[in-house]
Amino acid sequence: MDERIRKLAFMGLFSGLLVIATVVLRFPVPTFNLYFNLGEAVIYLTALLYGPGPGALIGGIGSALSDIIGGYPVWAPITFIIKGLEGYVVGALGKKNKYLAIVAGAIIMMAGYALAAGILYGIGAVPVELAGDFVQVSAGGVISLFLYNRLKNITFNDEDRF
Questions:
Q1: Terminal Cα-to-Cα distance of the chain (whole angstroms)
Q2: How confident is the model over 85-132, as pLDDT tens digits?
Q3: Which UniProt keywords apply (predicted)?
C-alpha cells in the first residue's frame, strides 16, 4: 500500500476514534454548559505515535468536529485552536520525554479552556472548568501512555512519524 494512503487512513481512523471518545464518552457538568471526556487519550496517543503534525490536525479537527456533533458549536473554533496546539506540542516533545510532553499539553489545554470559560461564562466557571479538565487530562495521560506502551512495538515505529 502506498505510504501516503496508509498514513491518511490511520489519520482518519484516529479522527474517528477521537470523535467517539469525545462525543460518546462524555460527562456533562450540570452547572455550566461544559463537559469532560476521554478524547485527550486519543490526542495524546496520536501525537506520541505520529508526531506534531498529525497530533495538531487530529486534535484540532477531530475535537472541533466533536463539539459541533455534540451540540457545543460555540466551542468549535476555540477547541480547534486549543486542541490543535495541544496535539502539536505533545507530538513535538513526545519523542524526547513522553511524560513532559503530556504535562505540557495538559497545561495548554487547561489554560486555554479556563480562559475561554471565563470569557464565555464568567469567572465562576473557571474553577469548574479546571476541575473537569484536570480529570480529563489525567485520565487521558494515563490511558494514552498505557496504550502507547502496548502499541509502539507492534504497529508503529519512528518512520511512521510525519
A1: 17
A2: 999 999 999 999 999 999 999 999 999 999 999 999 999 989 988 988
A3: Membrane, Transmembrane, Transmembrane helix
DSSP conformation class of 159: G
Query: Which grid cell is 24?
Result: 460518546
Range of the domain at 40: 3-160
Instruction: Tell me the CA distances in angstroms from 158 to 50, 65, 95, 147, one per residue in order.
Output: 8, 28, 9, 16
Its pTM stands at: 0.87
Residue listed under C-alpha cell 498514513: 7
Residue identified by cell 496520536 is 46
Structurally, the chain folds into a number of domains equal to: 1
- Angle at which helix 98-121 crosses helix 76-94, to 10 degrees, equals 160
CATH of the domain at 56: 1.10.1760.20
